[in-house]
Amino acid sequence: MSAYAIRAERLGKRYRIGQRETYRSLRDSLSDALVAPFRRLGGSGAAESNTIWALRNVSLEIAPGEVLGIIGHNGAGKSTLLKILSRITEPTEGRAQVHGRVGSLLEVGTGFHPELTGRENIFLNGAILGMRRSEITRRFDEIVAFAEVERFIDTPVKRYSSGMYLRLAFAVAAHLEPEILLVDEVLAVGDAAFQKKCLGRMGEVAREGRTVLFVSHNLPSVEKLCQRVIVVDGGRVVQEGDPGACISAYLGARAEPRAGVDLSAVPRLDPRLTPVFTSLDLRDPDGMPVSAVGCGETLEFHISYAAPVEIANPSFGII
User: Taking the mean position of all CA atoms in its chain, how far away is CA 55?
Assistant: First the structure.
């Protein structure tokens, strides 16, 4: 057994920007190849200005059974790294060695054929992973139950909602026994209950001794689930190590500097004239009290206050 599940050496990925790829003949391609050395000798920076390095000089080793968190702002290069490790794209420079069967969930429904049913896509993805039909059949009921799509399993997935698509895609990736599981920020699409369910399943995968790479902006989940974290910025790994330390450093680097305020210059209110809140209720649009609210739902604040003097146009803020 190899000492590492994944080993990356000086990985780099370059993309061309500002140009749309058009049909090119063999003669055009050969002409460009012949002229390229002379362009470099001429010192022109035009070609370089039309490229961007999404990833540069990234080296890392991940042990079998390790759970690695990858954090960074949007555009830092996290997804590009996972795409290289899952062989969706090739690196421009460097190399990556992956030992074991890889299950990846990088985008909602990646690897699904929209015209096929949920059942057919489960078997298709299993075959892509190199599994025998008997192995897939053994896990089939568990996959369908986890995804909660029993009623729609024989419906083409193009008719699924984004939530159904995501649940089935994650269930397939996590239950078809990959030795390495790569998960990108797709869990943000699901509701809180589904996210909790997925994190629990990833924990089970890790306890079974399989390797997990988890890209997420959900930093508490990363800290709870992962044994080690790397921070990616500008296509480079800028820090790695203990999850708590890396997350604290990342948040500190991302914090915007605030202008100082001379508090002595702020006018003070007479405490005798300060309004006092007497009650605060949270209610739904029908006026019924609520104790919890889901994302996207309407919420009303009912506030009562007492003031020693009349306030013509009161304004309220929430921090």
Answer: 17
Residues facing 6 on adjacent strands: 62, 98
Spans of the chain below 70 pLDDT: 1, 18-49, 107-110, 186-191, 255-273, 294-296, 319
pTM of the model: 0.67
Q: Residues 111, 150: contact at Cβ < 8 Å?
A: no
Beta bridge partners of 117: 156
Domain-by-domain residue ranges, the chain? 6-18+53-254, 270-319
Burial of 20 (0-12, 13-18, 19+ CB in 10 A): exposed
Report the C-alpha gap between 290 and 286 in whole angstroms.
11
CA 22 to chain centre: 31
| Displacement of CA 70 from its chain's centroid (Å) | 9
Pick from 210, 212, 214: nearest CA to 222: 214
Q: How far apart are CA 69 and CA 226, in angstroms?
A: 6
36 within 8 A of 44, measured Cβ to Cβ: no
What tens digit of pLDDT does each residue of 87-121 get?
889 999 999 999 988 877 776 556 788 899 999 99
Residue with tokens 């080296």: 59
List Cβ neighbours of 311 (8 Å cut-off, separation of 6 or more). 275
Q: Which CATH architecture has domain 6-18+53-254?
A: 3-Layer(aba) Sandwich (3.40)
Phi, psi of 110 (to 5 degrees): -60, 130
Query: What pLDDT does 299 receive?
Result: 84
Q: How many residues does the chain have?
A: 319
Q: What is the pLDDT of residue 106?
A: 75
